[in-house]
Design a protein that fits this description.
The structure holds two protein chains of two kinds. Chain A is α/β, with parallel strands linked by helices. Chain A has two domains: 110 residues, NAD(P)-binding Rossmann-like Domain (Rossmann fold), CATH 3.40.50; 177 residues, Rossmann fold (3-Layer(aba) Sandwich), CATH 3.40.50.720. In chain A, the strands form two sheets. Chain A has a seven-stranded parallel sheet with strand order 8-7-6-9-10-11-12. In chain A, 52% of the residues are buried. By secondary structure, chain B is α/β, with parallel strands linked by helices. Chain B has twelve helices and twelve strands. Chain B has a seven-stranded parallel sheet with strand order 8-7-6-9-10-11-12. In chain B, strands 2-1-3-4-5 form a five-stranded parallel sheet, sandwiched between helices. Classes of the chains: A alpha/beta, B alpha/beta. The interface between A and B is large, with 54 and 56 residues. Chain B: Its EC number is 1.1.1.79. Chain B: One of its GO terms (biological process) is photorespiration. Chain B: Belongs to the D-isomer specific 2-hydroxyacid dehydrogenase family. Chain B: InterPro entries: D-isomer_2-hydroxyacid_DH (IPR050223), D-isomer_2_OHA_DH_cat_dom (IPR006139), D-isomer_DH_NAD-bd (IPR006140), NAD(P)-bd_dom_sf (IPR036291).
Chain lengths: 313, 326
């Protein structure tokens, strides 16, 4: 298979690159001085793209690669891939579900605890020598608080399972209620936000869910409410989030994703009720290796005419 | 003077001011006459001799001062020590037993908050939450790229040292993360399905992480020593929400600096509020200023329990949370 051209737009993982290079003709787009020229030069050999949360395949890229057969994403969220266009053009799309479910859910709880118990802030308090001058202040208990979840897919359910171990009542919003779930369903996000203490965003990013967390929702969540975003930056109206936090209309936020990564609004840097992570939801050695194996597995299956492991389209 | 019954309220002695006492005072002073040793110009011993001879109840803080045999000598009428902590290492229990003084502690009232801190610190160390938060706030994500990968929590073997009310709450939480839980305790708990290790070193050897949830006693002092830390290993993580002195702090710092253990999440230290400064430059260490119980909710619950214990005592009813002292 080593004549099959596979386009890798940005660096993702040394292990993934190494495994791709063993099997395919790996074309690293970021190393090219002129990206458009590079694409033109290799257009006839590129049969696959490996994408991720930041780099996918839009209509323009798909059109410039006439031999493209498959987009294998090193992520579970595929909002950067034009799925409709891929379907039209007969391009297969795969992602990496399941293998990262636990890690992302773990980060949702880790962020909730870090914000409510001020773990990062009090670590800073100790490191700066302030503990010698006095105790840190009272924080807010996490156990028993109501956790509202937007999106009850694999990751949403895993977040619920963990929060339940902290005796947190669970409520959720989803495109449709799931009668087999024993959690309380709210038909609108605003109602969910009004009735929970911690609101976790964990649904896919689509046209419908863009800015699902808007000013109204943040006001409903309120001055004691905490927003946890482990979905995609555009789920949240970011400028509104900044002003809600600065004005105290929202109690706190734990963010793993942003509108325009790796840019993070600097106004948030000075806030003690905010924890900012650099998109590490699936960021463990074990899980990134498992994701890479799944990408390789999907590509191999495709080129051997076998059923794809985790197809989306 | 202070211990003349100028009010009908029963007298409760408090030796030192602390945030908890300050929060408790409004409610407490409606039901009790708080005799505050720190308010007096007299040195403590003299104050006690002059004013506290008929005092029957003492409200103590886990932060000190220790209730020593020496102090108890000045309190011949004392029948009850109520402490705001679960830990009793600051109370001379043998002397209390000898003098027929009952002791009430905080029992399980903030077991959940402590467990939340333990799990929060554990996730922080494994997934580098505080370190990568610093990275983002330092503006480094844009110029240096992605933060180094953390370590998956699911499937890890966690050894809990001390399976009392706090240890149990930690175990329940970690099970939901897909961890397999084992423990070391003074005695095996036959009703629980977690694997028991009678030897903490063996537990460490078989664990990816140790979470210290036990009390500080003569037996547990420096129980986590170099041998245990070596058994835990280069990838191993330790979290301490018990007492600083359960771990040989000097050894632990050397192990962390030398890369002989993988990381640590610490809420307690041997000589608070002093923290070994070698730890400040380590990104695989998360430091917390003994605040596992310091939530609004815990203080409300604790206030009710402490007041409840005092009320029960003064009305000759059974204490709500008597500590077993043997």
């Amino acid at each position: 298979m080593d004549s099959i051209g596979v386009l890798l737009p940005i660096p993702m993982s040394p292990y993934l690159e190494q495994e791709l290079e063993k099997r395919f003709n790996l074309l690293k787009l970021w190393t090219a001085p002129h990206k458009t020229q590079f694409i033109k030069d290799h257009a006839t050999s590129i049969r696959a793209i490996v994408g991720n949360a930041s780099a996918g395949a839009d209509a323009e890229l798909i059109d410039s690669l006439p031999k493209l057969e498959i987009v294998a994403s090193y992520s579970v969220g595929i909002d950067k891939v034009d799925l409709k266009y891929c379907k039209e053009k007969g391009v297969r799309v795969t992602n990496t579900p399941d293998v990262l479910t636990e890690d992302v859910a773990d980060i949702a709880i880790g962020l909730s605890l870090a914000v409510m118990r001020r773990l990062c802030e009090s670590d800073r308090y100790v490191r700066s020598g302030l503990w010698k001058k006095g105790d840190y202040k009272l924080t807010t208990k996490f156990t028993g608080k109501t956790v509202g979840i937007i999106g009850m897919g694999r990751i949403g359910k895993a977040v619920a399972k963990r929060a339940e171990a902290f005796s947190c009542p669970i409520a959720y919003f989803s495109r449709s209620g799931k009668p087999d779930l024993k959690y309380k369903y709210y038909p609108t996000v605003v109602e969910l936000a009004s009735n929970c203490d911690v609101l976790v965003v964990v649904c896919p990013l689509t046209e419908e869910t863009r800015h699902i967390i808007n000013r109204e929702v943040m006001n409903a969540l309120g001055p004691k409410g905490v927003l946890i975003n482990i979905g995609r930056g555009p789920h949240v109206d970011e400028p509104e989030l900044v002003s809600a936090l600065l004005e105290g209309r929202l109690g706190g936020a734990g963010l793993d994703v942003y509108q325009n990564e790796p840019e993070v609004p600097e106004e948030l840097f000075g806030l003690e009720n905010v924890v900012l992570l650099p998109h590490v939801g699936s960021g463990t050695v074990e899980t990134r290796n498992a994701m890479a194996d799944l990408v390789i597995g999907n590509l191999e299956a495709h080129f051997l005419n076998k059923p794809l492991l985790t197809p989306v389209v | 003077m202070a211990d003349d019954d100028h009010s009908e309220l029963p007298t409760v002695l408090v030796l030192r001011r602390c945030p908890f006492i300050a929060l408790l005072e409004p409610k407490c002073s409606q039901k009790f006459n708080l005799l505050k040793a720190w308010d007096s110009p007299l040195p403590q011993d003299q104050f006690l001799t002059t004013h506290a001879r008929s005092v029957q109840a003492l409200l103590s803080s886990g932060n000190g001062p220790p209730i020593t045999a020496q102090i108890l000598q000045f309190l011949p009428s004392l029948k009850l020590v109520v402490t705001n902590s679960t830990g009793l290492d600051h109370v001379d229990l043998a002397e209390c037993r000898r003098r027929g003084i009952a002791v009430a502690n905080a029992a399980k009232v903030f077991a959940e908050d402590v467990a939340d801190t333990a799990v929060g610190l554990f996730i922080d160390v494994m997934r580098k939450v505080s370190a990568s938060n610093r990275y983002v706030r330092g503006g480094l994500w844009a110029c240096r790229g992605d933060y180094p990968l953390g370590s998956k929590i699911g499937g890890k073997k966690v050894g809990i040292v001390g399976l009392g009310s706090i240890g149990l709450e930690v175990a329940m939480r970690l099970e939901a993360f897909g961890c397999s839980v084992s423990y070391n305790s003074r005695s095996k708990k036959p009703s629980l399905s977690y694997q028991f290790y009678s030897n903490v070193c063996e537990l460490a050897a078989d664990s990816d992480a140790l979470i210290i949830c036990c009390g500080l006693t003569e037996e547990t002092h420096h129980m986590i020593n170099k041998e245990v830390l070596s058994a835990l290993g280069r990838e191993g993580v330790i979290v301490n929400v018990g007492r600083g002195a359960i771990i040989d702090e000097k050894e632990m710092v050397e192990c962390l600096v030398g890369g002989e253990i993988g990381g640590a999440g610490l809420d307690v230290f041997e000589n608070e509020p002093n923290v070994p400064k070698e730890l400040f430059s380590l990104d695989n260490v998360v430091l917390s200023p003994h605040q596992a119980i310091v939530t609004h909710e815990a203080f409300v619950d604790l206030g009710e329990l402490v007041t409840g214990n005092l009320e029960a005592f003064f009305s000759n009813k059974p204490l709500l949370s008597p500590a077993v002292i043997n």
